Amino acid sequence: MTNSKPSHYFALIAVILLGGLLRFWHLDLKPIWLDEIITALFSLGRNYTDVPLDVVFPVERLSQVFSFKAVLTCPQIAANLATYSVHPPLFFCLNHSWIQAPFVGMMHQDWIWSLRSLSALFGVISIAAICWLNAIAFSRTAGITAAALMAVSPYAVYLSQEARHYTLPILLITLSLVGFVQIYKDLLQQKLRYSVWLGWTAVNCLGFYTHYFFILAFVAQVVTLLAFMYSQRRSLPRHSLLVITLSILFVFASFTPWLLAMTSHFNRSETTWLPQLNYFAPIYQTLASWVLMLIALPVENQPWWIAVSSGLVMLVLSLWIARFVFRGLKQLWHSSTTRLSTLMLLSFTTIVLLEFFAIVYFLGKDITIAPRYNFVYYPSFCALVGASLGVQNFRFKLQAKYIVIVFGLVSSLFVVNNLAFQKPFNPQLVAQNMNLEPATPLMMVVGYATYQDVALGLSFAWALEKIRSDRVPTNLAFFARSPGYESVWQKLSAAPIPDATTVNLWVVASGLRRRDYPAQLTVSHKQCQIDTTQHYRIGIPYQLYRCHS
């Protein structure tokens, strides 16, 4: 590692400031979507019992649903999550404490900004952590390069602007990899520093309570470390096998209080949304995710010529970058000072990818369809790309490095302005479609089978609330569809409806085919006729009925 220079610290500060600007800029611009609704409910001290179900209520009541309810303890939040959701509790506990802090409210009055700001903060801290990782594994120059890549990574910016538990595990995985690299370096020197092992163990204990996929990262580190220790078995310091055994046992033992909740979550309906397996899709989806970690130009909901042009630029540029990264990795491999760090991080990344494909092909759950799940190996990916582009004697390294950073910066600007990595189900677009006649009273009805359906409807309703006039009635209703949609139509027939000559009724019906929507519905005293020109599907279908007295 090169000697410490003030320029490195100034560069790191500049990179962190740039990363912070990108993550906090327009933090409340994008509409809140299904998963963030879930975060909001539990972070605000609420759960689904606070949502009015099987009744009609005005859209103005949403502000009450999304208000801070009460100061809860972490065990109380964990109990809510164990009952109503499928996630470990640590991020939600931290976010609950964060959004009630006075200084958070002073920074911004919008509750969505407050809800997302902790994720953005963890994203900024991760930039410093990845610099630390590469400084230990490779060099200070590689550390600054990796930090710059993460600062402008459209993928990292996208996750940082999500009110979800992704940037916290990214931070913890990065810190865990710092310990992982330091441990193998110590073992090479026949040293056993208990403080490093304790830190590594503690970080992994916390990580298990942030996201279930953190377990994959821990297993990949353990397998890599055990393989390394086996290869060095003749020169290992005394008690090293005992130390790693105790560390592994302690990490898993620390998670036993949550094991019962985790096993119950595996059978919940919220985990069955992943599509049926397509044998080739996971491969190209994984490759596409690697591209998105570096470049993300506008392709979603764009005119075809913009989408095609952006796609071609991303493809050509990613192939060009891949050539430089491959050459850089070869140079790292052939250098005696960086070979082992390269091998360890490559092994970690490969094992995580193998775990992903095992889940896909053996369990039939295609987790590669959602780029956000790649957070598990994103720190090692960023570290390796940063090191490969920051190799000291690498021809054209400056050209390649700065081109990647510039395109990353441009991509992140698209992300923060809602032109790339748009929110799933696009609540903003749904609300605009539903609000096709702003002066006409509106009623949105959601048929729900699970709380996921309720959260999705709430995201549409909140987007509607932001664009509908207070003077025009806008009502909502969530009706249970058990055993089927006939129960929804029956409840709808007795439901109150705005007292106006004409009302636009929108029915959000997850799982319902277009031809299965009834041609006519009765709502209170009004007859509602289907408008076949106003049928949409954006993950789920929603249909307009025009109601007249």
Structure description:
With 549 residues, this protein is an alpha/beta fold. 58% of the residues lie in helices and 9% in strands. It has 22 helices and 7 strands. Strands 1-3-2-4-7-6-5 form a 7-stranded mixed beta sheet, with helices on both faces. The longest helix has 31 residues, at 304-334. The N and C termini lie far apart (78 Å). The model has no long low-confidence stretch (mean pLDDT 92).
Keywords:
single chain; 549 residues; alpha/beta; 22 helices; globular
Question: Care to give the gist of this entry?
Answer:
The protein has 549 residues and is of the alpha/beta class. The chain contains 22 helices and 7 strands.
Which stretches are low in confidence, meaning pLDDT under 50 for 5 or more residues running? Answer: none
Distance between the termini: 78 Å
Shape: globular
Give the ordered list of helices and strands. Answer: HHEHHHHHHHHHHHHHHHHHHEHEHEEEE
Which helices and strands occur, and which strands form pairs?
Layout: H1 6-24, H2 34-43, E1 56-58, H3 62-65, H4 74-84, H5 90-99, H6 102-107, H7 111-137, H8 140-152, H9 154-160, H10 167-188, H11 194-208, H12 214-231, H13 240-254, H14 256-265, H15 281-292, H16 304-334, H17 339-363, H18 378-389, H19 397-416, H20 427-434, E2 442-448, H21 451-467, E3 474-480, H22 485-493, E4 502-509, E5 520-523, E6 526-537, E7 541-548
Parallel strand pairs: 2-3, 2-4
Antiparallel strand pairs: 1-3, 4-7, 5-6, 6-7
Helix pairs in contact: 1-7, 1-8, 2-21, 5-7, 7-8, 7-9, 7-10, 7-18, 8-18, 8-19, 9-19, 10-11, 10-12, 11-13, 12-17, 16-17, 16-18, 17-18, 20-21
